[in-house]
Each structure stands twice: as structure tokens, then as C-alpha cells.
């Protein structure tokens, strides 16, 4: 929130959707209760949002509950962050053509993403997007497909007043309040929404809405809710820089312990909003004249990930879990200047056996450093 | 952007040599004359080779970049793509993008003695550097080349090694873990050769490429002989699918082998060499 925070009464919430549509966003995505969870889906009306819906998350468990209250954002998160919108789970990146005389030609896949507004983005999701931008956009080879999709997004972040039991964004300093990465920031009260701009595009949109300033008591109410959402989080990651501590414990017995429990299924990497690993592969047409070269989300929990033709670098689950954790909490610091974990808790919830990254990190730090 | 260097170009096979039962060399010519003229590589770098309809593999460049001859790659048929590449013949086409990665320390090695230690097909990534140095023989001091293979019949380029040996101040030592008929060289691993090699401790740069256990065994011996750890360089191999630091497969600790490497200064990668699971 800032000094230009304005108030949008609940009854007029559709004006925000109209303003977005009027600003050229042909596609507006919001959280929708579907398949027993919350997914970013196209919305046409504020009532498409999950009114009165709560999420109950625990290690290995996700349930929605219906309550009789007007709020649309009284939940923590669903399995998706923004990742599928910018880093597509499966996409063609180029095509090869082979002419009858054997000559090859290559064409890059073209993609003109529709301008898209996303409502209901969490602070952890914005932090994760920033990390994915560092990986895909700010290296030596900026990814054109990621960049185009990113640039087509307008992000309405909503401060989180209802963290799940699995959340620990306060511990990673990535939430629960919307403070960066948003075009428009939003906080929900029973009577309506406080809105503030994060970018020029957000400012322009607010001018279009022409709303009254939020009152001091409304702002205090939001601050109280944020404070409450911060202090209710029970899970934490130990310390701020785990890299050295983990590097010093690569031989710890606990890796075998967690390796026994882990199914190596890759759910954690699929729901993780920062995991970027993907495989590249070809799908040739049956006529033998063309082939599509694709990239598809992959996981360091797959054997494919470290396959070397004549051997597999990480042949067992213990080594794969260690790779994931030491990367996420360790080597990300060297690669991207911070931890790769934003505290969203998805890997805990969506793990079929309920492995808890925070508990594993604490347990590892209990072990004596390697000799 | 991934373009224009990151979309494959069409390349044609101009020559093919079967080196051993499963190792073959391809000479390639980029079909587009403009691209061919603009293409520049550096010893130690690699290309992504694309087999139509099957996929891509990273393969180190064997040829000396300053040579007018075509690009050369020496490949062992081990996986889906390389088994397919093995079946291509002169005149066939494939896709090529690159070059990628950081190559050998040619500047750092200039004016110094150079020890080249390779094992198995690790001889391929170092060959471009050897050729580069021998073309500029006066720019380098004594050159010691050690190559080890598992079985004597795995040795490729026997005549090339014998030709190098005749050049001034070049020592070539070859070894096989298992000898065989017509094997006049040593039997044992590369470290056995190191005892016989004449490695000057002063002003020596060592470059290594091969199985990590081999490199890990060789390094303490180099250090014991007085070689400065900052003058030891290694080329590391991992699964690479994009070549541009995106796909994540090649990570070893914090390093993306495809871009931060494949060649590393020893102290930068020392913690991770031959470490189970990394």
C-alpha cells in the first residue's frame, strides 16, 4: 500500500474487470474453484471468483471448503503459480523441414501471446516470477518465448490474509504482503478492495477507475490482517543462507532417510514456481518431411535428467532429493543471488507422501558436518 | 535472443571415418556460404548436432578453428541420437548450432609448458587445442601429451600421435588399461604415464579431459610435481539439452557446464569433481 491507495467497493468490483478489458486485456485470468482446487482460468465476472472458498492445506493434502462469507481471496494458493503462463509446460520451439533431396531447413516457432491480466497473484508467486525472469530473461541467452509471454502480462497481486498451514513466505521474506513485482496491488476486506499501483500501467488503470482514497481505518484493517498472516505462519526455513550449511552436509545420513520416503515422482518440481528444468525432444511427422522440436517441463527427480548415455549421474532417489534441495536452497544463491525457495509451501502440500522441505532442512542442519 | 545462433543450421557431411567399432568422425560443412564464413569456434567448445526427427547432442569440436578444413566431430555411438548419427553417410545433412561454452586457456598457456592429459574419448576435446598449439609451435614451451584408453583397441588417431611425437619438444605417452597385440605402449592407467612423463614444475599449464575418476587421480600428482592449481584446467561432461544454460540438466553444484564450462579452472570446480550424484 502507498499514499495513493484507493478503495473499490465490493459491489463495484466488476469495474476492475471492465477497466482491464477496456485497457486491451482480451484475456483476464483469475482463481477459479475447479477440480477440487484453485486454478487460474478465464473469468468474465467477479462472481466467477471463489466466493467464500477456503483452502485447507497440509503435507500431502489439499481440500477446499465453502464458507458463508463474501471474500474471494480468503485462501493461500492453488497448485499453479504464474509459471505455466510464462514457461509453458510443453511447447514447440522450432520446426525442421526435410525436402525430398534431403536438404534441411529450420524455423523458429512464432508466438504472439494475447495481452493477459491475472487477478489474484500472491506475493510468493511474484517473487518466483522474478526468479524465473533471472533465469530465462536476464542470462546470456534471453528466451524470446518466455519474454514475449511475460511482457503480455498485467499482474494484479493480492496480499495474502489467509496463509495455509504449509506456507512459510514470511520466513523467506517473500510475503504475505504485495510489495514488488505487481502492476496493481490489492488487499481484500469484507466491504471491498484496497488498490494501489506498482507500475505506470497500474497507475494508468487506477486513473481510469477514478476511485476514492482508502480511509485510514481501512488501511489499518489491512495491516492488521497482514500482521496476523505473518505471525500465524508456523513453518520456517532455518537461517537465511543455507548454502554453506548444506554443502557441508552432503554426506549426511539424513539424505538416505528422506530418500527412503521420497517417491521420486516430481510433483514438487511441477508445482514449484521457480523450478526451470525442461527436456528438449523431437516429434517427427509421420510423412518424414517435418519434425517439431519441443521443450517440456522435466524434473531432477527423473532418471532422464542426469542420463549420460553410458551411465546415470543420480541413479537413486537419495541423490536426486539431495540435488533438488541443495540446488533450491544452496546453489541458487550462487546462480541467481538468492535462494530458489519463495515459501509458497506447494511442494509440501502436493507431495503424495507429505515430505516437508522445511522439516528436512531443519533435520539436515541437526547433522554433523562432513569430515 | 536464441536467434540467430540458436536455431540449427543445415550442415553436410563431407567425410566420414570409422575410427573404432563404435567411434566415428564426421567432417561437416555448413551449407549456407554466409554462415560458413561467419562461423567461428574456439578450441574446447562444442556444437549441438541435430539428427532430423530424433534430437540433439552436444559434441566437442575436434578441428582447429584456424584451419581451412571443415568442422570435425569425433563421436561415440552410445545413445539414441549418436547411434542415428553413426548411420549417416557422406552427403547426408544434419543440423548444427553453436559453438557453445568456454574453451581451453590458450592465452594462459602461451609461453608456458603444457601437459595434456586425456582418457578415452576425452582425447577429442583436447585435440583442437593440441592442433592449435602445434600450428604456433614457437608460442608454447614443452608439450607433453598423455592419453589413456581402457583397451588397446580403443585407441584412435595412433598415426597422429606418432606424428606429433616427432615434433620438437613434444612428448607423447600412450597407455591402455588392458594391452593387446601390436601395443608397443604402456599398460596401466594414465597416472602410470605421469610417472614417466617429463613434467616441468615451473610454468606448466595442465589440461585434462576424460572420466572424472581419472582426472581426480591425476590432479594430486600434478600438484605434487609443483604445478600451480590455478594452471590446471578440466573439461567436464554432462547431459546437455539446450546448450544455453536454460534446461538445467548439466548442473554440477552451482555450475552450468554448458555455459560456465565445459572447461573449468581446477579451483573453481575442485569441490565437485567425481562427487557421487553431482
From TrEMBL, chain A:
Q: Has keyword Metal-binding?
A: yes
Question: Where does the 4Fe-4S ferredoxin-type domain lie?
Answer: 252-284, 332-360
The alphabetized UniProt keywords are: Iron, Iron-sulfur, Metal-binding
Looking up InterPro entries in the UniProt record yields: 4Fe4S_Fe-S-bd, 4Fe4S_Fe_S_CS, Helical_ferredxn
What are the protein's GO molecular function terms? iron-sulfur cluster binding; metal ion binding
**Keyword Aminoacyl-tRNA synthetase listed:** no
PANTHER family given for it?
Answer: ANAEROBIC SULFITE REDUCTASE SUBUNIT A
**Name of the protein this chain belongs to:** 4Fe-4S dicluster containing protein
Organism from which the protein derives: Ectothiorhodospira marina
TrEMBL record, chain B:
Q: Which organism is it from?
A: Ectothiorhodospira marina
Residues involved in [2Fe-2S] cluster binding = 242, 247, 250, 258
Q: What is this protein called?
A: NAD(P)H-flavin reductase
Q: Which UniProt keywords apply?
A: 2Fe-2S, Iron, Iron-sulfur, Metal-binding
This protein's record includes keyword Iron: yes
Q: Output one GO BP term.
A: pyrimidine nucleotide biosynthetic process
FAD-binding FR-type domain location, by residue?
A: 6-106
**InterPro entries named in the record:** Cyt_c3_hydrogenase_gsu, Dihydroorotate_DH_Fe-S-bd, FAD-bd_FR_type, FNR_nucleotide-bd, OxRdtase_FAD/NAD-bd, PyrK_electron_transfer, Riboflavin_synthase-like_b-brl
A GO molecular function for this record?
A: metal ion binding
Q: Which cofactor does it need?
A: [2Fe-2S] cluster
Write down how the cofactor binds this protein.
Answer: Binds 1 [2Fe-2S] cluster per subunit.
UniProt KW Electron transport keyword: no
Q: Which PANTHER family match?
A: ANAEROBIC SULFITE REDUCTASE SUBUNIT B, DIHYDROOROTATE DEHYDROGENASE B (NAD(+)), ELECTRON TRANSFER SUBUNIT
